[in-house]
Structure formats: structure tokens, C-alpha cells
Amino acid sequence: MSEASPDKPDDAAAAEPTTAVQEPITDTATVESAADEAARERRGFLSGLVPKLAIMVAVIAVMIAAALWWQYRQFYVELSGDDSFLLEGLEDTRASVRRLEDEIQALRGELAASETAVDSFRDDVEALPVELRALGRRVEALQGGQLDSRDSWLREQAEYYLVLANVELGLGRRVGSAIAALELADDVLRDLGDPGLVDVRSAIAEELQDLRGVPQPDLEGFAVNLGGLMSRVPNLPMRPASPEDFGAPEESLDDVEPGLGRLLERTRGAVTSIVRIERQEEPVGRVLTESERRLVRHQLTLELQIARTAVLERRQAVFRASLVAADDILNRDFDIADRSIVETRALLGELMRAELSPTLPDIGDSLTLLRNASGGE
Q1: Distances from the Cα of 287 to the Cαs of 50, 89, 91, 307, 363, in angstroms?
Q2: CA–CA distance from 376 to each of 139, 140, 156, 368 (Å)?
Q3: Which of 9, 28, 162, 358 is the right S-S partner for 367, CB 3.0 to 4.6 Å?
Q4: What is the pLDDT of residue 96?
């Protein structure tokens, strides 16, 4: 026992250095454990941040898509309204075309009836010289009183020419024919040499002066010009269906921060290039289908045909109304910047200022004076 007790301090002393050596080992493990814990926390933070960023990007993309969808929907709502308006306008145009065709048929019927009446009256008038020649032969066959019979025959011949002048001017509005008839009547009265008919010749001279002062419209030239315009209608250029600069220019991304910002800009550019809504300062031409374009050209040709018919009938109001309608069609549906359209509209403007039916003077005074003169019937 006494030997063992001295050894105990030695064992304790031996144990103490061992404990002192193990303390640094315990501190290094703690440091490594703390570093591992910090690394795990960083990895957990990053793993939680990525889903959050993904959710934020998804939410932003959904909001952008919803805004673009709303704009797209509004655009098609407006486009649907424009389509309805165009369809209504097309129906109105078709109704107008049918109405104009009915009016043309009615005008043609009236023209045929007027031509029939004029031809009948002309036949009656042309029969007068035959009767006058027969009367002259009977007068020459009589014995005695030949001078009075000759004077009476010449008076009747002059009266016939005056009647013919009034008919040509009143019914046919042919100023040249009326002038020729008045000149023939004046020649007959000059041959008659009756001093009592001086007032009649004076009235004829005044009527000739009035007729020569009447402006003569070139109706044949107007009809030829309108016929030429009608032949050029199929080749006239129409307004384009949509603006030529409809595409949006690609925007530069040099000033955009690389990374998520540039990705968002590229995504926005790709989506907005699909649908683009623009405000045009100038009115955009109507978008017409091929059948509507043919209908517009047919309507323009019809208006020009009505104007040409009005020229032949000397209908001033119908003539100008048809030209105005044709000019409106050119301005609305054709390329007004094209040279051919500019020249066509200029010609229509000149025709609008033309007078088809100038005011005609009254040439009935000479006929009245001749019938009321002494010796007249």
C-alpha cells in the first residue's frame, strides 16, 4: 500500500499532459463544424432564392402576357366593328348601284320616247316642202294672178323656215340648224322684197345675233373623254390595302444591362412584334377584298356611263352629280398620289365646269311678226 500510493501522483501527472494535448483537437473540430454549418446555411439560402426569383419572373411574364392579350383583344374588337361598318357600306353601295341602274333604264326609256317624238315631228316638218312645191305647181298652172301667188308661196316658204328654226332650237337645242333656217328665211324674204316685212327681217337679224352669241359646248368631245376614262378604269391604281411601313423596327439592346434585363427586353420585343397598334395621323384606306375592288371599279364605270348619257341628253344636274360621285370614288379608294389618278381627277374637274345646256334666246318674235303682217294668213 505504501508503494502504491507514491505511484498515484505519477499517474495523475501522466494523465494531465494527455488532457492538455487533446484540448486543441477539440477546438479544431468545433471550427470545422461551424464552417460546415455556415456553408449549409449559404446553400439553403441560395436554394431558397432561386425558386423565389423564378416565381417573380413567372409573375412578371404572366402580367406582360395579360397586358398584351388585352391590347390584342381590344384591337380585334375594333377590327370587328370596322368590318361591320364596311359590310354596311358595301350593302349601301350595292343598293345605290341597283338604284342607278334602274334610273339609267328609265332615262333610256325616256330618251327613246323623246327620239321617237322628235323623229315623228321631223317627218311632219320635212313633208312641208313637198306640199309647198305642189302648191307652187298648182299656182303656176293657174291663169292670171301669178305675182300674188308667187308672193304668197314665198311667204309660206319663209314661215316654214322660221317654224323649222324654232323646232330645231326648242326640241333639239341645235343652234347651228336654227341659224341655218333663219338665214334661209331671211334670203326668201329678201327675194320677196315686200317693204311691209322689214320688221320681220329686223327681228330675224336680232335673233341671228343672239344665236351666234350662244356658247357651243363640245358635247362630242365630252362624250369621247368620258369614253376614254371608262376604258382606263380597269388599269387605274387603287389605294393599298394596308400601310407599307406596318412592321416595327428592331430596337437596339446595347444600352440594356446584360442578364435578366436584356432577356426581358428580348421577350417583350418578340411578343410586341406579333401585334402592333399604331395611331395614324392620316386616314388609312379601307381594306377591300378582291370582289369589293371589282365592285368599286364597276361603280366608277357606271358613274362615268351615267355622265356620258347625261351629255347626250344635255342633263346638266345628272352630269355634274355623276362626275362628283366618280371623283369621290377616286379620292376614297384609289391612289390619289399616282399620276394617272391626278390627271383623271383634273379632267373630271374640267368637265364639271362645262355647261351642257346654255341659256337659249327666244326666236319666236320673227315668226309672230310674219304671221301678223298684212297679207299673211
Answers
A1: 50, 12, 16, 28, 57
A2: 17, 20, 9, 11
A3: 162
A4: 84
